[in-house]
Amino acid sequence: MRTVLKIRKKGILILPKKLREKIGINEGDNVIVEVREDMLIIRPLKPKIVDIDVSLLEKLLSEEFRLETQKYREIFRKNAVCS
User: Fold this and answer.
1) Do both 38 and 65 map to the same domain?
2) 1, 12, 29, 74: which could form a disulfide with 8 (CB 3.0–4.6 Å)?
3) How many angstroms separate the CA atoms of 46 and 25, rounded?
4) Which tens digit of pLDDT belongs to each residue from 24-70?
């Protein structure tokens, strides 16, 4: 599908309804715009939704917290000895 569009004041480009419907862009959606050579590419931003195990996430975050706490205690201990 090819369409000629006119750039308006301040660079505003209006995408006709048929184009938006064809690629699934709705009012309020975010789009990705990139330049390749002499082309402007506009794509809908469709974030990937991932299903995660909440208990696994809590376990990983807990372990990360424990390790960070241990690291900071070691730093503070070394600084207290050096002072």
Assistant:
1) no
2) 12
3) 10
4) 999 999 999 999 999 999 999 988 888 889 999 999 999 999 999 99
Range of the domain at 27: 9-44
CA atoms of 26 and 15, how far apart (whole Å): 11
Angstrom distance (rounded) from CA 48 to CA 22: 20
Question: Which structure tokens are listed for 60?
Answer: 């990983």
34 forms beta bridges with: 41
Q: Is 4 part of any domain?
A: no
C-alpha to C-alpha distance for 66 and 72, rounded to whole angstroms: 10
Backbone angles phi, psi at 44, to 5 degrees: -70, 140
* Number of domains composing the chain: 2
